Amino acid sequence: MIVLILLIVLLLASLLTVFKAPTYHLWLLAIAVSEFPLIFIGITGVLLIAIVWVEKYRLTSAIIGVLALLLFSSPIIRGYIVASTVKQEFAAVFGPGSTIVNGDNNQQPFSFFNLFKTSNTKATDYKTLTYGNDTEQTLDFYPARFAGRKPCVVVVHGGSWSSGDSNQLPELNSYLANAGYNVVSINYHLAPKYQAPVAVNDVVEAFNYLRKNAENLNIDTNNFVLLGRSAGAQIALLSAYKYPQKGLKGVVDFYGPADMVWGYSMPASKLVMDSRAVMERYLGGTYKGVPDNYFASSPIEFVNKQTVPTLIIHGDNDVLVSPIHSCKLDAKLTKTGVKHYYLDLPWATHGFDYNINGPGGQLSTYVVERFINIVCR
């Protein structure tokens, strides 16, 4: 009976690989089941083997266990499906040589064996520097592994504009530094004490600091890329589209809210996050009270023919920031004729890149590295 109960619990958990999480804590579980699938496959496999010694409900337990096993395996299967076309799709946008990095075009976007790794890069030591006039304005600088002036990736963290810091998801920073890019992960003024556009102004100040200190930091000021996650993606996109910096070659959008007006009209479930309250703290009021703030903070409104190339990455099971934001941005960039690529991950939820070696983590890292490489070429 205990085995049957455990298998039922696992089956319910496995449903998060295909259905959106209805509550905050189940969203956290959804990240685990979709991006650490081998753990759950292993547990389910052990319980299926244990059925041999169970007399009651053996067939029922077996059916439930096999269903759970298939669902836990689905992110891996779908990862391979996405990987089978990502090279060709990316090359169709950025050219036939865009998938070549350091002379290698054989790296696969997704590998089953990488799922067993705890890390795929050596952590890079960073130093914390102050780019502004107060304690909030600091950045972590990850120097490129190779000598000489190198491009610089400026990372803007997520956290609903009111939390998070520059240490968020640092493994990609080390990965890119080892690949030969300087990486700067910035801290910015947080809501509700500071409201829009203060955080965007912080990005401008960070760029000014990096240009001023480019010689000491070995930064190629002709090759900057902005990268943001969630709320940080909104800041990065708005900075890139509304206040484009000299030398900025592209922007990477990890599951960011691109249309703040639409986002307020279609909020997330309050059982997951009160997204309207989050936006009100950041923008200084409701949409009815300060509509201009919502418009002025919507990156999609500032797309034009001079907009820098954009990489969009989003999961269809995202319950915090609807993937419709990315669909709308994709459509606007297409209409305007801006070079861009949209990596759509059918199984993934918000924060899927927590595990850089998970199905979503591998695929996103693959396209991020190639995007930076081609726009900074």
From TrEMBL:
Gene Ontology MF term list: hydrolase activity
Transmembrane segments: 36-54, 61-81
InterPro entries linked: AB_hydrolase_fold, BD-FAE-like_dom, GDXG_lipolytic_enzyme
Residue ranges occupied by any BD-FAE-like domain in the UniProt entry: 141-333
Superkingdom classification of source: Bacteria
Keywords, ordered alphabetically: Hydrolase, Membrane, Transmembrane, Transmembrane helix
Name used for this protein in its record: Alpha/beta hydrolase
UniProt source species: Mucilaginibacter terrigena
